[in-house]
C-alpha cells in the first residue's frame, strides 16, 4: 500500500499532449473532486471552488487567449531559448476531456480566519493543496492532468463569470490519456533539469549555495 502511494507520486506528470478526449466517468470525476475537497485548509475555510468547463466554444476562447500569451512569453526569450521553447507544448485545453478551473475566495470565513493573520497567502496555499490532492487522485485513477498558467486572471474571470475578489488559481486540463511520460516534458525538451534533493536540504539554517556548484548527487 505504501509503495503504491509513492508510485503515484512518481508517476504524476503535467500532461499536455497525451489526452484521448474520452469522457471521464461520472463516478471517477466525483472521486477526484472529493479528494480535492478533502484537502487541509487554513482555518477550515475550504476557500476553493471547482468550475467544470466542457463547453467547446468556451475552451476555444481560452485556448486562443493562451496562445496569445504564449507568443508574449516567446517574444521575451533569447534566440536559443526561443528555439527550445518552440518545441514545447504548453497545454491540452481542446484535447482534454474537461477543464477544471480551481478558484480561491479569500473572503470565505473572513474576517476571523484562524491561522491567516500573519501569513496572508495561507488561504492560497490551501487551494494549492486541493489542486495537488486532485492531481494525485487523478493519477491514481489513470487520468492525466495539466496545469495551464499562460493566462491573465481578468480574462478568465470574465470568461467564466467569476465574481470580483475570487481568483482563478488554475485551469486544469483533465481526462484519460494514452500514457504518462516517464520524464517530464520540460526535461525531455531540454528546457530545464531537475535538481537533486541534496541541493534542496539545509540543516539548522538556510545555506546559500553556488548555483554552478555540483552536488554529490550530480556526479
Entry summary:
Residues 9-175 form the Nitroreductase domain. With 219 residues, the chain is α+β, with helices and mostly antiparallel strands.
Written description of the protein model:
- The chain has 219 residues and is of the alpha+beta class.
- It has a single domain (12-181), classed as NADH Oxidase, CATH 3.40.109.
- The chain is 36% helix and 13% strand.
- It has a 4-stranded antiparallel sheet, sandwiched between helices.
- Helix 2 runs antiparallel to helix 5 and helix 3 packs antiparallel against helix 6 (153-160).
- The two termini are 33 Å apart.
- The model is unreliable at 214-219 (pLDDT under 50).
What descriptors fit this protein?
four-stranded antiparallel sheet; 4 strands; disordered C terminus; 219 residues; alpha+beta; 7 helices; NADH Oxidase; single chain
CATH architectural designation: 3-Layer(aba) Sandwich
Order the strands across the largest sheet as they lie in space.
1-2-4-3
The whole-angstrom Rg is: 19 Å
- Quickly count the domains: 1
What about the largest sheet?
4 strands, antiparallel
Low-confidence stretches: 214-219
Shape: globular
Number of helices: 7
CATH superfamily: NADH Oxidase
Measured as a percent range, the helix fraction is: 25-40%
- Structural class of the helices, strands and pairings? alpha+beta
Run of helices and strands = HHEHHEHEHEH
CATH-derived topology: NADH Oxidase
**According to CATH, what is the class?**
Alpha Beta
Distance between the termini: 33 Å
Strand content: 5-15%
User: Whole-number average pLDDT?
Assistant: 94
How many extended strands?
Answer: 4
Amino acid at each position: 500500500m505504501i509503495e503504491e502511494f509513492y508510485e503515484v507520486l512518481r508517476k504524476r506528470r503535467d500532461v499536455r499532449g497525451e489526452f484521448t478526449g474520452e469522457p471521464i466517468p461520472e463516478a471517477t470525476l466525483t472521486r477526484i473532486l472529493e479528494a480535492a475537497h478533502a484537502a487541509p485548509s487554513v482555518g477550515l475555510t475550504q476557500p476553493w471552488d471547482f468550475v467544470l468547463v466542457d463547453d467547446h466554444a468556451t475552451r476555444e476562447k481560452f485556448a486562443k487567449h493562451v496562445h496569445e500569451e504564449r507568443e508574449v512569453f516567446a517574444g521575451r526569450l533569447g534566440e536559443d531559448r526561443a528555439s527550445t521553447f518552440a518545441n514545447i507544448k504548453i497545454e491540452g485545453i481542446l484535447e482534454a476531456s474537461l477543464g477544471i478551473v480551481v478558484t480561491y475566495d479569500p473572503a470565505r470565513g473572513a474576517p476571523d480566519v484562524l491561522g491567516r493573520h500573519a501569513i496572508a497567502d495561507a488561504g492560497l496555499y490551501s487551494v494549492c493543496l486541493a489542486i495537488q490532492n486532485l492531481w494525485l487522485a487523478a493519477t491514481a485513477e489513470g487520468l492525466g492532468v495539466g496545469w495551464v498558467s499562460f493566462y491573465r486572471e481578468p480574462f478568465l474571470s470574465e470568461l467564466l463569470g467569476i465574481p470580483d475578489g475570487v481568483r482563478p488559481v488554475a485551469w486544469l486540463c483533465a481526462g484519460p490519456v494514452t500514457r504518462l511520460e516517464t520524464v517530464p516534458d520540460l526535461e525531455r525538451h531540454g528546457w530545464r533539469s531537475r535538481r537533486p534533493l541534496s541541493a534542496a536540504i539545509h540543516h539548522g539554517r538556510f545555506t546559500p549555495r553556488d548555483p554552478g556548484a555540483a552536488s554529490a548527487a550530480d556526479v
